Amino acid sequence: MSKIFFILLCLISTANAEPWATTDKYLMGSYVALQAIDCLQTEKALDKGMKEANPFYGDNPSTETLVVTKGALIGITYFVADQYPQDRRWMLWSLNIIQGIVVAHNYTLVKFGFPLRD
């Protein structure tokens, strides 16, 4: 589990490319962190016997599937943000808000034990 977290957090270093503004680097870093938290929350929920709600993953995705897809999402996000600097900040803000909502939702499910899907 710690390897997963480490791998995802290592991707934060990709947010150090110039000419990214400091705010944009922090936004990219927080997006990576939120993806890592989501991955860890999913693992914890699966360990509690819950099912994954995202139909893309199926009911019980493997750790490898989660890490690979999260890594791909982070890579695609970085590529698009790097290619379109005029849209970078609003895109990263939007993705952080969406992922933050996902993490908050997962927290309530895992903490209080509500089923993710019947």
Quick overview:
The protein is elongated. The chain contains 4 helices and no strands.
What does this entry look like structurally?
- The protein has helices at residues 2-10, 22-47, 63-83, 88-112.
- It is elongated, with a radius of gyration of 15 Å.
- The chain has one domain.
- It contains 4 helices and no strands.
- It is mostly helical.
- The mean pLDDT is 85.
Question: How far is it from the N-terminal to the C-terminal residue, by CA?
Answer: 26 Å
Strand content: under 5%
Category by helix and strand content? mainly alpha
How many structural domains in the coordinates? 1
- Count of beta strands: 0
The tally of helices reads 4
- Give helix and strand order, one letter per element, not per position: HHHH
Low-confidence stretches: none
* Helical fraction: 55-70%
Q: If you average the pLDDT, what whole number results?
A: 85
Radius of gyration (Å): 15 Å
Characterize the overall form: elongated
Taking the sheet with the most strands, its summary is: none
